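Take a look at the protein record below and tell me what you see:
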Amino acid sequence: MIKVVAACGNGMGSSQIIKMKIAKVFKKMGIEATIDHMSVGEAKSAAAGYDVVFCSASLVDNFKVKNNRTKIVGLVNLLSEAEIEAKIIEENIK
């Protein structure tokens, strides 16, 4: 089971929506994951404890994770399940 966090500017609305979309796509793809959501500020310090961080593409540069485990995935359209699925495949997230 992988650990995933959805992050947005405030950690309230957008990250919750991303979390729900990610959960739906993971379920469709048969990937087991625990998914949290939080603000980018919180996620920056917590990211190393996760396998994947999903956030807006404009926020990716906020993350400077120094391990080989955590993948930072930027989304252009936060509501697009097709984009989320494509990123999961592209990043080989299992």
User: Anything to note?
Assistant: The beta strands are 2-8, 33-39, 52-56, 71-75. The CA atoms of residues 77 and 83 lie 7 Å apart.
